[in-house]
């Protein structure tokens, strides 16, 4: 008999120019075996080079130069990208028979920026939103509208960023958190990682997995839907779990520090494996 079907799903959106859309899933899957991963690939677009060089055809969710500026207005085709993400969420709800609160939308870089915009605009409440090394794209007026009328105004949003990011400056995360809170979106968690560049380090990978496990616990209970990030993410709790299941904390996530070229992830799988497979 095969494994049981997933009871939750992470919709993960890759960065601008990233070639391996499933890189995160390859590292995280074994730590949350009850959770599926949906990792679509963006269409290739012609992106301008930041150094005045030749434009490049790269996977991209919307119009953006290879070195995005912090003060740029929202991209003109952001709405189309949001629509694609919403269609994917609806597909996951139908095909996997999941409630939207059993789905987390996240991404890295450009994908993380889109995750915030698409997650806040979705018409049903999601399990969580995570942005690693991205930025808040929308203007305050649009964010205030999400806070007043949006289904995800109270959904936990995690912003993770490296302090030495040379692609999207770390100030984007600080400013983004302030922007969201000022608009009335209060459940925002910000974490910076010292001396980390525009990559996902072993520590930030562990924190990302912690967030998934906290927002999508092994057993879906109504009480878990109202937990705040400070309770389940910061403390390392993972909700209701079968006997013998050990929480995965970032300080126990052992991976090699070597980073793969054109990928934001460590090159080797974490060595820790869950001690109990959920039934």
Number of helices: 7
Provide the structure class. alpha/beta
What value does the Rg take, in angstroms? 18 Å
Averaging pLDDT over every residue, what do you get?
Answer: 81
Residue ranges: pLDDT <50 for 5 or more in a row? 220-263, 266-279
Describe the structure.
This protein is an alpha/beta fold. 28% of the residues lie in helices and 15% in strands. It contains 7 helices and 8 strands. The protein has helices at residues 23-28, 78-96, 110-121, 140-149, 171-182, 202-215, 229-232, and strands spanning 8-13, 35-38, 44-47, 56-59, 103-108, 128-132, 157-162, 188-193. A 6-stranded parallel β-sheet has the order 2-1-5-6-7-8, with helices on both faces. Strands 3-4 form a two-stranded antiparallel sheet. Helix 2 packs across helix 3. The protein is globular and about 55 Å long. It starts with 7 loop residues before the first strand and ends in a 47-residue tail after the last helix.
Task: Give the SSE map.
Elements: E1 8-13, H1 23-28, E2 35-38, E3 44-47, E4 56-59, H2 78-96, E5 103-108, H3 110-121, E6 128-132, H4 140-149, E7 157-162, H5 171-182, E8 188-193, H6 202-215, H7 229-232
Parallel strand pairs: 1-2, 1-5, 5-6, 6-7, 7-8
Antiparallel strand pairs: 3-4
Helix pairs in contact: 2-3
């Amino acid at each position: 008999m095969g494994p049981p079907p997933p009871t939750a799903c992470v919709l993960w959106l890759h960065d601008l120019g990233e070639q391996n859309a499933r890189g995160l899933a390859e590292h995280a899957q074994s730590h949350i075996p009850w959770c599926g991963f949906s990792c679509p690939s963006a269409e290739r677009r012609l992106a301008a080079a930041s150094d005045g060089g030749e434009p490049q055809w790269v996977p991209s969710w919307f119009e953006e130069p290879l070195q995005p500026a912090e003060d740029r207005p929202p991209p003109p085709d952001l709405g189309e990208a949001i629509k694609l993400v919403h269609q994917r969420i609806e597909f996951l709800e139908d095909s996997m028979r999941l409630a939207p609160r059993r789905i987390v939308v996240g991404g890295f870089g450009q994908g993380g920026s889109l995750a915030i915009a698409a997650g806040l605009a979705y018409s049903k409440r999601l399990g969580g939103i995570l942005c690693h090394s991205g930025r808040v794209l929308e203007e305050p007026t649009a964010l205030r509208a999400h806070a007043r009328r949006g289904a995800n105004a109270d959904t936990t949003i995690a912003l993770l960023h490296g302090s030495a990011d040379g692609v999207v400056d770390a100030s984007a995360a600080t400013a983004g958190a302030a922007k969201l809170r000022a608009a009335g979106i209060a459940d925002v968690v910000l974490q910076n990682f010292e001396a980390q560049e525009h990559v996902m380090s072993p520590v930030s990978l562990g924190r990302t997995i912690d967030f998934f496990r906290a927002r999508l616990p092994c057993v879906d209970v109504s009480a878990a839907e109202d937990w705040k990030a400070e309770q389940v993410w910061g403390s390392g709790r993972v909700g209701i779990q079968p006997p013998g299941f050990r929480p995965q904390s970032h300080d126990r996530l052992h991976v090699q520090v070597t980073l793969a070229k054109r990928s934001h992830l460590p090159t080797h799988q974490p060595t820790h494996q869950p001690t109990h497979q959920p039934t």
